[in-house]
Write a structure and sequence with these properties.
Layout lengths: L31 E2 H14 L4 H8 L19 E6 L15 H10 L1 E2 L1 E3 L5 E3 L2 E6 L5 E6 L13 H13 L17 E5 L2 E5 L18 E2 L2 H9 L13 E7 L3 E6 L12 E6 L3 H9 L5 E4 L2 H8 L4 E6 L4 E6 L9 H10 L2 H8 L29 H14 L4 E2 L2 E9 L3 H14 L3 E8 L1 H10 L4 E6 L30 H10 L6 H17 L2 E6 L2 E6 L2 E2 L26 E2 L3
């Protein structure tokens, strides 16, 4: 669940989690050669000089394209070295905060109950079938038979129930699920392979929301019980996925090996080595030098460098999450809307776009992209207006002098690192803020970064979030009942009218009735001054040109899976042609 919003991208100003939403109709992935990617970068640079009308028109187009068909015969063997942007505090889906890198490793080890297909619909994965009642408050799931975890434990309804109860018992992960269920009778086991979720509120698309994310991952109950008694075992995960854990050295490398007994086809790769390289520029250089075979990044300078390199293929996707600066409203100074609005007005978004994003990713002003049906064209997010910030700061400091020094509001800006890109972003933002705000900088490793945001120990933070194909999944980050000592509503801002709109959206099974609802949700978010949106994150999955089938996984019914949203990669069918 923390894959799209839990934070900590070291690639740009933002942090990530589970985060993470794509248009129901948008293409899910793209692949281009290095030369094609370079041409796109050049076109983006030329667009900066074009008339404003042309810029606006260009911004409406998603950066996606058709993936080239793989015509080379797959081969088995080889080890894939994959550079990841940060370490995860653990690989336990019932207890760990899995952001982008943790999610990448975990999807190799664990299966989820459901997946998202190429059309943006929920599709059965560990589940063989599901059905709901007339008001979508009861979901009955039947699992596939014969699946075992890596330790030989059977994957059945009891295993799912054990995982579910472990999630409810965890202080942080429980925030993503407990508000959906009664305190008793949340899950009923019907028989060995069948169980039932009993929801407090209707959710007519439930399988395509939480069951495709971290909350939908299923771990061995035998291992989970051992990990409860010995939390160090969170670093030695046991799932049912295509790869099994071999070794894990924190902040260095995690190695997984092929699961020869995988239920949905034996993987081609012998092993994957996930190598922690927090600086995106270094990660890109190591890819060009052949020290690693692939990476995921949202750092635009790295993307451009790789586009100009020989022997690199790139897969682009920008219909997922957004990059933004997020404000904590639970304490001074941003518990006062005047301080929040002043920071918006002082934010140099134009410089951010040109200096950090090089004018390439699409500018964002809300949680939906222009190609999504839920996009609200009437949203106006005002930045780059320091003259309007001055009177708000003056008024605030007169009323709350304890939060100001020398007529400026005191704030801290936090980002995850170490990361040169994060440092550059902080410099650009603070250059715009410094006339009205006294800003201190706090860089944290990703794990600590996420924890401090969950606890509320921040003022303003670089973040990446909102990216699920089904926007229902993103409700967790917005609801009043996910605010507490630990919060997944990171800004700690409660809007009961917004909650009512979110509840209304969950009653609908079709997109059309939800459009007006989500447009109003976006307007309320904009009016609350919570997220200073910078861009729709441009995800680049870059690989050496001897790596194939990054997006080649199909469900048992033959339907292709969605690929690359928020940097998600499935290695089930990936193979390497050795030099």
């Amino acid at each position: 669940m923390f894959a799209t919003a839990c934070g900590g991208s070291d690639d740009d100003s933002s942090s990530s989690s589970d985060s993470s939403s794509a248009s129901e109709a948008a293409e899910s992935s793209s692949e281009s050669s290095a030369s094609e990617a370079a041409e796109e970068a050049e076109e983006a640079e030329e667009a900066e000089e074009a008339p404003a009308e042309e810029e606006a028109e260009e911004a409406e187009e998603a950066i996606v394209a058709e993936e080239a068909e793989v015509t080379i015969e797959p081969v088995s063997g080889g080890t894939l070295r994959w550079g990841i942007e940060a370490e995860s505090d653990g690989l336990n889906p019932t207890a760990s905060a899995l952001s982008a890198s943790g999610r990448t490793m975990s999807y190799a080890i664990f299966d989820t109950i459901a997946k998202i297909d190429e059309d943006g619909d929920g599709i059965e994965w560990l589940a063989e079938s599901w059905e709901t009642n007339s008001d979508c408050t009861v979901w009955t799931i039947t699992l596939r038979s014969g699946i075992q975890f890596h330790d030989g434990t059977p994957l059945n309804a009891e295993a799912v129930a054990f995982n579910f109860n472990a999630q409810l018992a965890d202080p942080l992960v429980s925030l993503a699920v407990k508000y959906l269920f009664p305190t008793e009778g949340a899950l009923d086991i019907i028989d060995d392979l069948t169980y039932r979720y009993n929801l407090l509120e209707p959710d007519c698309r439930y399988p395509s929301s939480l069951l495709t994310s971290q909350v939908g991952m299923v771990a061995s109950p035998t291992w989970l019980q051992a990990a409860i008694e010995d939390p160090t075992l969170d670093q030695q995960p046991i799932g049912s996925g295509p790869f099994m854990i071999e070794t894990r050295i924190l902040d260095s490398q995690t190695t997984v090996v092929r699961n020869d007994n995988y239920w949905n086809g034996t993987p081609y790769l012998d092993a994957i080595e996930f190598v922690v390289i927090t600086d995106s520029d270094i990660r890109g250089s190591l890819l060009q030098e052949g020290e690693i075979d692939g990476l995921v990044t949202t750092n635009v300078p790295t993307i451009v460098d790789l586009a100009e390199a020989e022997g690199i293929n790139q897969f682009f996707e920008d219909t997922g999450d957004e990059s933004f600066t997020m404000l904590q409203t639970g304490k001074a100074p941003f518990n006062d809307i005047r301080a929040r609005e002043a920071l918006f007005l002082a934010t140099p978004n134009e410089n951010y776009q040109s200096l950090i994003n090089l004018g390439i990713p699409r500018t964002a002003n809300q949680i939906f992209t222009p190609d999504e049906p839920y996009y609200n064209p009437d949203i106006v997010m005002v930045t780059d207006s320091p003259e309007l910030a001055a009177p708000l700061v003056e008024e605030y400091c007169a009323d709350v002098p304890s939060s100001c020094t020398n007529g400026k509001i005191n704030i801290e800006y936090q980002y995850s690192g170490p990361s040169v890109a994060g440092e550059r972003t902080a410099e650009v933002l603070i250059e715009g803020w410094k006339e009205f705000f006294n800003v201190t900088i706090d860089m944290k490793p990703q794990g600590s970064h996420i924890q401090e945001v969950a606890i509320g120990l921040f003022d303003a933070v670089g973040w990446r979030q909102f990216g699920y194909v089904n926007p229902t999944t993103d409700h967790t980050w917005l609801r009043c009942d996910t605010i507490g000592g630990l919060s997944l509503n990171w800004p700690r801002f409660c809007d009961e009218e917004r909650d009512a709109l979110l509840a209304a959206a969950k009653l609908e099974t079709e997109v059309e009735p939800q459009i007006e609802i989500y447009q109003e949700v976006s307007q309320r978010i904009n009016d609350s001054f919570l997220y200073i949106f910078h861009s729709h994150s441009l995800w680049d999955v870059a690989v050496r040109d001897n790596v194939y089938n990054i997006c080649g996984v199909t469900a048992p019914n033959g339907k292709a899976l969605d690929c690359l949203i928020n940097g998600d990669v499935w290695f089930n069918t990936t193979f390497i042609i050795e030099d």
